[in-house]
């Protein structure tokens, strides 16, 4: 049920006053209340909101979550031409390369020496691995021959001393 009250411009809201000429009707309640709210009739079927099968599907929820995350990160899908995408990628790669070069230039002498030593150690490790692989892949007669040489050298050193 809609109730109206009259209001005078610049005055407080008061119940209807027939003496006032410049009154405006202001609705108190815009929507009427449904009948089933006050009735406790168990035979009435109360309305329920329908379930949207698209929104309840797992795929839709995952897609929606991914789109929201991308939008927050600023990675919203954009319809750019392929050439523009390639040019932007090149520009990004160039900026990254410049930053790396600047970082290389800013390295101190100590950092440079440490990098050189690290590279030498890595090379030595690679050489050791190659030798081990060669020894493992070598035929058995070559291994036996190497063992005989070592024992022969050890015997010769023991006799000399």
Automatic annotation (TrEMBL):
UniProt biased composition (Basic and acidic residues): 82-109
Pfam families for this protein: DUF1151
Keyword vocabulary terms for this entry: Coiled coil
InterPro entries tied to this protein: FAM107
Region (Disordered) location: 75-109, 130-161
Keyword Coiled coil among UniProt keywords: yes
Entry keyword annotation includes GTP-binding: no
Top-level taxon in the UniProt lineage: Eukaryota
Record-given protein name: Protein FAM107B isoform X3
């Amino acid at each position: 049920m809609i109730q109206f009250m009259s209001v005078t411009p610049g005055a407080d809201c008061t119940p209807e006053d027939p003496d006032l000429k410049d009154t405006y009707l202001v609705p108190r309640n815009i929507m009427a209340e449904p009948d089933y709210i006050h009735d406790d009739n168990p035979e009435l079927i109360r309305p329920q909101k329908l379930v949207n099968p698209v929104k309840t599907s797992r795929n839709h929820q995952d897609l929606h979550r991914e789109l929201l995350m991308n939008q927050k990160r600023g990675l919203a899908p954009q319809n750019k031409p392929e050439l523009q995408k390639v040019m932007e990628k090149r520009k990004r790669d160039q900026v990254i390369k410049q930053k790396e070069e600047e970082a290389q230039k800013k390295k101190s002498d100590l950092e440079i020496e440490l990098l050189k030593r690290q590279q030498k150690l890595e090379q030595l490790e690679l050489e050791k691995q190659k030798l081990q692989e060669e020894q493992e892949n070598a035929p058995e007669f070559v291994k036996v021959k190497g063992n005989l040489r070592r024992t022969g050298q050890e015997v010769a050193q023991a006799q000399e001393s």
